[in-house]
Amino acid sequence: MTEDNDRILQKIQKLMALGESSNIHESANALAKAQTLMAKYGLDQKAIDMSRLGNIQRAGLTRSMDIPRWYSWFVYAIDRCFGVKTVMSRVPGEWGDNKRGWANSVASFTGPRDRIELAAYTFEVLGRQLLAARKAYNASLGKMDANQKWKLVESYCEGWVATINDKIETFAVDAKEVELRDEYMRDLFTNVGSVDYREKEYNKEESRALHRGCDDASEVDIHRPVNGTESIKIGVQK
Known about the structure:
Elements: H1 3-18, H2 24-40, H3 45-51, E1 53-59, H4 69-82, E2 85-91, E3 104-112, H5 113-140, H6 146-167, H7 175-188, H8 204-217, E4 220-221, E5 236-237
Antiparallel strand pairs: 1-3, 2-3, 4-5
């Protein structure tokens, strides 16, 4: 989309918003101007609706070559909360604060522009909280077999994220928006797949780690932010 087209679409969107005014004359005048611009530039309602969608990226939470179960659940929680769709991918080179080269992860949020901003904000705030909890739990384990320690930490994160998921209310998205968003994403991404996980059985130590994660996450307050501000707190300890 060119800068001129973007400017025109934004003008039409503002006029259509004015068209919902309770002032009959103001509403009719705004809608008439919007229809005139749409006819002039050959735009239909679908083009207007598509212009409300966008995509933004944030640095991911893990550099693992495989997407951990807890990370997939975490992204699912963000998607449910804001009615957006997130694609996790890897990019070569530097990204964000990670200067170690290849295998940097990126989370790409797609949906209505206002909601993807809030989703990305929440992803970052809750993500920092999750990684801090993970680090503290890892340190609490002390010295032990590296593989066993990794399994316990992963189980802890799974419990933490599961509790966050339980706290989140699903944002209702209508079928039309989903259809438009999926079309928008097809133009952005190719070869997007899904991750399937086997049913996991936890041993006694892993189960204890899982419940520890659940308990720690129960202390986190979850609220949907407004206007991207921290006036409604996300990921804050009680």
